[in-house]
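Record 1 of the preview.
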Amino acid sequence: MRCFLGTEESQNNDGRAQPLARPDVDDNAGGLRQDAGGPASLATMGRRAFVITPHQHGNRHLESLLHLAGREKHKFSSALKELEHHVQLEVAEALIFNIRKHTNGGMLPSADGSSPKLSAEQRDVVIEYIPEVLQIMDRLEEHGHHHRDARVSLYATEALSYEVSTTSLVKAAPLLARIFKNIDLMLAKSPELKGGAPFIIKGMMFLNAPMPVRSVRKAKECFQTAHQIDASSPRNNYFCGVAAYLEKDYARAHKYFAEALSLAQTAALVSNARMTQGKYDAGSVCLANKEMPMDEYLHVQCRLGMDLASTQISQTSAHP
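->
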């Protein structure tokens, strides 16, 4: 099970891997400390991984963080232990962001409800960085931070779902148990987190589970609850469209897909306008609670969903 959450604003959604910079490079956004790979530089990378400046397409802090987590894991682990919990969470967010960027926003399901497979390249990205995310989540949970900050359970759930996608069915069982535990905790403490993301995750579990657990009806209830929390969310509208299509309510599916596409396009225009007008400066950090502007994959799937629904409506009209 892989879940599309879309909870950060993205400055680069072209899906291409960026060159990995060495962690001791300096730049105009403030530079990294000389203790490259140490706690101070790791904290800087985590905090500045989403700094956006006008016309900036790459991000050296994010690239340096990825280098450290992927190529110098011992330094990463040592430095991580000395960071405060909220900084550890920022580092995890940056790593999760990178995985989403390379997996179509967290492997968004197709408009017809099918789940795309990870490509070899996507699988490599997951395998390289998910252990570090889980290391952070385990450390935070060990100190009880998941009871105080629901984002810990949210990112742990997302990381575990990626882990499930790259492991065997036997090894997946305990991971799924942890996922369900995290979902229950999020729903109990922060059901409105990230525009109803816990309900989206729970709904995805019902869609992806084998029979007899699989239930489109229960998934739809979860997606509609998320929609009630935030009806302006492209993500929430899209998932409602997927559920409606699976239930053969094609008119409603078309409506949700069209709304998701419109909202996603508007979000992208607003983001681009802010970039052009220089609204983001070297000190603005975009770890926002809003959804990130949806990438082209979502646009394509919304259009596909509208076409599929229209075709079904036409066929029904021709053969009442």
